[in-house]
Write a structure and sequence with these properties.
There is one protein chain. This protein is mainly alpha-helical and about 140 residues long. The protein has one domain (about 40-135). It has helices at about 1-10, 40-60, 60-85, 90-110, 110-135. α3 (about 60-85) packs antiparallel against α4. It is globular and about 45 Å long. The termini are far apart. It is found in: Membrane. Its main location: membrane. This is Transmembrane protein 14C.
Length: about 140
């Protein structure tokens, strides 16, 4: 039954009738004006999984807490960028903070895992966000 309701939406998803608010199939519309920040979500998953791996391997509760905190902030920042590409500030602050903290740890230990990997990924994220900031048109 559900397939019969969804089939016209899948076939005619670009129809203006189906895109009108209040239309029967408008709720199921696969067409979206929102571009998803997949890189940001991947970065958030990398941070959170790094904290979980640190806890699993070494029993480090601070690593788990920091991974979940910063992973959550990075995920929230990716969500904000997905909704409004000009709203990069949470992602930029999170990746900038991780670049500094993990870069300092990498400089002191000279061990690539985990500090070097996180510092490098965070630095790449700062670069991506900075390029997005520089490419958007200036408002006057």
């Amino acid at each position: 039954m559900f397939l019969y309701l969804l089939l016209p939406q899948l076939v005619f998803c670009n129809s203006s009738v189906l895109q009108q608010p209040g239309s029967l199939f408008g709720f199921f519309s696969p067409v979206s004006n929102m571009s998803v920040d997949w890189i940001g979500y991947g970065y958030a998953a990398l941070i959170a999984s790094g904290g979980a791996i640190g806890y699993a391997k070494a029993g480090s509760v601070p690593s788990l807490a920091a991974g979940l905190l910063f992973g959550g902030l990075a995920g929230f920042g990716a969500y904000q960028i997905s909704n409004d590409p000009n709203n990069i500030w949470v992602s930029l602050a999170t990746s900038g903070a991780l670049t500094g903290v993990m870069g300092k740890r990498f400089y002191g230990s000279r061990k690539f895992m985990p500090a070097g990997l996180m510092a490098g990924a965070s630095l790449l994220m700062v670069g991506k966000l900075s390029m997005a900031l520089l490419q958007k048109p200036q408002e006057s």
